[in-house]
Design brief:
Shape of chain B: globular
Oligomer: heterodimer
Structural class of chain A: mainly beta
Helix content of chain B: under 10%
Number of strands of chain A: 12
Order of helices and strands of chain A: EEEEEEEEEEEE
Helix content of chain A: under 10%
Order of helices and strands of chain B: EEEEEEEEEEE
Largest sheet of chain B: 7 strands, mixed
Largest interface: A-B, 23 and 27 residues
Shape of chain A: globular
Distance between the termini of chain B: 36 Å
Structural class of chain B: mainly beta
Radius of gyration of chain B: 13 Å
Number of helices of chain B: 0
Number of strands of chain B: 11
Number of helices of chain A: 0
Strand content of chain B: over 45%
């Protein structure tokens, strides 16, 4: 069964500095991996997804993530944080590559951006 | 194209009462699911379905029932509400390995 660990429950960065949100996963097959963001009192928005194509995935708003199978990791990065990046971020895994696989969320990392 | 429609938006129940959260999608998605969101715990999967007549348990299924009689609808039933079921509930659907489409959420309080 798949599972997700987000290593930091809260990350605080200064505006203009890099962002690193860490995610490790467990999967029995070749997983599909996603990052979602949720701004306060808003719905969930897809940032990016990995589905067995290129291991470096680029998403919206300057975010990217690298799939490392040997480390079972899918960390989210951004070169320069913006105030509008302050939100809750969720790493998500789906076993295999079919529509029959359940989708599991990690517990989330709350990102604060200090001006 | 309405996407995922989830009702009601807010609900207050007394302990022991039953209710059904409704979820409908008009995108012909095979996969539908229910999550609950609690502070610090992310979204936890309650039940999911990969097609009409097929349902399976997620991470936290106890106290909840589901059925999938049509592709479009996936209701979530609380048979006897408990305060521990106070949460925000989201219905979501997807096609293939694409992103999830979410409903707007239901804020449920059980007193």
């Amino acid at each position: 069964a798949q599972s997700v660990t987000q290593l930091d429950s809260h990350v605080s960065v200064s505006e203009g500095t890099p962002v690193l949100l860490r995610c490790n996963y467990s999967s029995s097959y070749s997983p599909s991996l996603f990052w979602y963001v949720q701004h306060p009192n808003k719905g969930l928005q897809l940032l990016l997804k990995y589905t067995s194509a290129a291991t470096l995935v680029k998403g919206i708003n300057g975010f990217e993530a690298e799939f490392k199978k040997s480390e079972t990791s899918f960390h989210l990065t951004k070169p320069s944080a913006h105030m509008s990046d302050a939100a809750e971020y969720f790493c998500v895994v789906s076993d295999g590559g079919t529509s029959y696989d359940k989708v599991i969320f990690g517990p989330g990392t709350s990102l604060s951006v200090i001006p | 194209n309405a996407g995922v429609t989830q009702t009601p938006k807010f609900q207050v129940l007394k302990t022991g009462q039953s209710m059904t959260l409704q979820c409908a999608q008009d995108m012909n998605h095979e996969y539908m699911s229910w999550y609950r969101q609690d502070p610090g715990m992310g979204l936890r999967l309650i039940h999911y379905s990969v097609g009409a007549g097929i349902t399976d348990q997620g991470e936290v299924p106890n106290g909840y029932n589901v059925s999938r009689s049509t592709t479009e609808d996936f209701p979530l039933r609380l048979l006897s509400a408990a305060p521990s079921q106070t949460s925000v509930y989201f219905c979501a659907s997807r096609s293939g390995v694409e992103k999830l489409f979410f409903g707007s959420g239901t804020q449920l309080s059980v007193l």
